[in-house]
């Protein structure tokens, strides 16, 4: 603290004391270094708060980019064509032609396409793995008729065997593909013995077992048989039951949804309704907005906890340094100088905590992304704003203790 006084001749007033910025920062640094352990613990609250803030926003941005890619690869490349002929003509009959897969497959941008529907066998629909009577037990399992293109469009992962192909489908062979869970329930562990499943009294040789699928997860819980075989055994689907699943290239789904009904039924395209994928930007915005709101709330809670820690520690420091404050006031320090000193200390601790927290938060995002094999994404504004948030947190937390310190009277402080 420096005092600048004019000469006393002529009773000229004493010039008020001043506290230059350089001395303010040096005094604040001395106050922090006087108790380094306490200063470190005080800054720890801001480190945790700002670090959580950066990590949460970074992880949110990173997961949002993964959601983007997932939408692009799956949701944005799937088109479903529904049979709405019942609403147009009750006597329309089967809407999807026998060569539906080939018709849609010729459209530009189509990777795989096929017709499927859920079969409702007359009588017992119990599925068994042994040739016994229908009343001797079994599993109630769904039966799905699907063309080879529908299976490929679902993009399944084979655990054993293979998928039935166009030849088996055209010749209406009694073959089936089942999910690994269904196989376990029926006691089928290997395909080397050419096991069969029985739907009622109708046998189907199991040619493949799938354990995952990117689309149509309900296929994993069903016995999937060729479309032609299902038509031979149980008849064609009823109006409105059949659907077509189309897997497209990225960006082609909208055009395919527009062209598919005409390609399938040029005479009555109104019998079919193509359902394009939802706008990924809308879904992405909704999911990202929900994540941001939730995680920003958590980050704000962490910052409040850090601010309370700084305020508590600064207030304790004010009480412990009452004698020092009284001495400074007796030597000419003004109330605003004391306020500025403690605000500078709390602000410096907050800024330091913000810098360290920003580094730790960014490192957390990189580590999580590396472990999950993601691409880390952190907005530059988040990195730039985090230290400022730490500084503001420290200033706000130290405001009340600093104001309280400025109101301490010198005589009272020196008596303690």
From TrEMBL:
<dbReference type="InterPro" id="IPR003838">
    <property type="entry name" value="ABC3_permease_C"/>
</dbReference>
<dbReference type="InterPro" id="IPR025857">
    <property type="entry name" value="MacB_PCD"/>
</dbReference>
<keyword id="KW-0812">Transmembrane</keyword>
<keyword id="KW-1133">Transmembrane helix</keyword>
<dbReference type="InterPro" id="IPR050250">
    <property type="entry name" value="Macrolide_Exporter_MacB"/>
</dbReference>
<protein>
    <submittedName>
        <fullName>ABC transporter permease</fullName>
    </submittedName>
</protein>
<dbReference type="Pfam" id="PF02687">
    <property type="entry name" value="FtsX"/>
</dbReference>
<comment type="similarity">
    <text>Belongs to the ABC-4 integral membrane protein family.</text>
</comment>
<feature type="domain" description="ABC3 transporter permease C-terminal">
    <location>
        <begin position="297"/>
        <end position="410"/>
    </location>
</feature>
<keyword id="KW-1003">Cell membrane</keyword>
<feature type="transmembrane region" description="Helical">
    <location>
        <begin position="340"/>
        <end position="371"/>
    </location>
</feature>
<feature type="transmembrane region" description="Helical">
    <location>
        <begin position="294"/>
        <end position="319"/>
    </location>
</feature>
<keyword id="KW-0472">Membrane</keyword>
<feature type="transmembrane region" description="Helical">
    <location>
        <begin position="377"/>
        <end position="400"/>
    </location>
</feature>
<feature type="transmembrane region" description="Helical">
    <location>
        <begin position="40"/>
        <end position="61"/>
    </location>
</feature>
<feature type="domain" description="MacB-like periplasmic core">
    <location>
        <begin position="39"/>
        <end position="237"/>
    </location>
</feature>
<dbReference type="Pfam" id="PF12704">
    <property type="entry name" value="MacB_PCD"/>
</dbReference>
């Amino acid at each position: 603290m420096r005092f600048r006084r004019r000469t006393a001749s002529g009773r000229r007033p004493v010039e008020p004391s001043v506290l230059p910025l350089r001395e303010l920062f040096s005094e604040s640094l001395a106050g922090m270094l006087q108790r380094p352990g306490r200063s470190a613990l005080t800054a720890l609250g801001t480190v945790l708060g700002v670090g959580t803030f950066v990590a949460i926003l970074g992880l949110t941005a990173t997961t949002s980019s993964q959601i983007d890619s997932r939408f692009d690869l799956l949701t944005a490349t799937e088109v479903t064509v529904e049979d709405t002929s019942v609403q147009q003509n009750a006597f329309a009959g089967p809407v999807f032609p026998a060569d539906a897969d080939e018709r849609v497959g010729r459209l530009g941008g189509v990777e795989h396409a096929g017709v499927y529907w859920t079969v409702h066998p007359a009588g017992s629909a119990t599925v068994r793995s042994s040739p016994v009577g229908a009343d001797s037990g079994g599993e109630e399992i769904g039966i799905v008729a699907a063309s080879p293109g529908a299976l490929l469009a679902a993009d399944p992962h084979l655990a054993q065997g293979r998928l039935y192909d166009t030849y088996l489908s055209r010749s209406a062979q009694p073959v089936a593909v089942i999910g690994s869970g269904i196989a376990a329930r029926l006691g089928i562990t290997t395909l080397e013995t050419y096991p069969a499943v029985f739907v009622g009294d109708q046998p189907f040789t199991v040619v493949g077992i799938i354990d995952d699928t990117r689309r149509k997860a309900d296929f994993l819980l069903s016995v999937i048989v060729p479309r032609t075989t299902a038509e031979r055994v149980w008849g064609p689907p009823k109006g409105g039951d059949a659907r077509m699943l189309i897997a497209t290239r990225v960006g082609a789904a909208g055009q395919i949804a527009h062209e598919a009904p005409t390609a399938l039924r040029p005479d009555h395209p109104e019998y079919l309704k193509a359902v394009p994928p939802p706008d990924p930007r809308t879904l992405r915005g909704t999911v990202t907005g929900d994540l941001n709101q939730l995680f920003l709330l958590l980050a704000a809670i962490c910052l409040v906890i850090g601010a309370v820690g700084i305020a508590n520690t600064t207030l304790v420091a004010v009480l412990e340094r009452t004698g020092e404050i009284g001495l400074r006031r007796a030597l000419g320090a003004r109330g605003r100088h004391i306020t500025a000193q403690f605000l500078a200390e709390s602000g410096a601790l907050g800024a330091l905590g913000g810098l360290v927290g920003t580094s730790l938060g960014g490192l957390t995002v990189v580590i999580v992304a590396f472990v999950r094999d993601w691409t880390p994404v952190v907005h530059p504004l988040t990195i730039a704003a985090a230290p400022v948030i730490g500084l503001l947190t420290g200033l706000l937390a130290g405001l009340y203790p600093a104001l309280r310190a400025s109101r301490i009277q010198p005589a009272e402080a020196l008596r303690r």
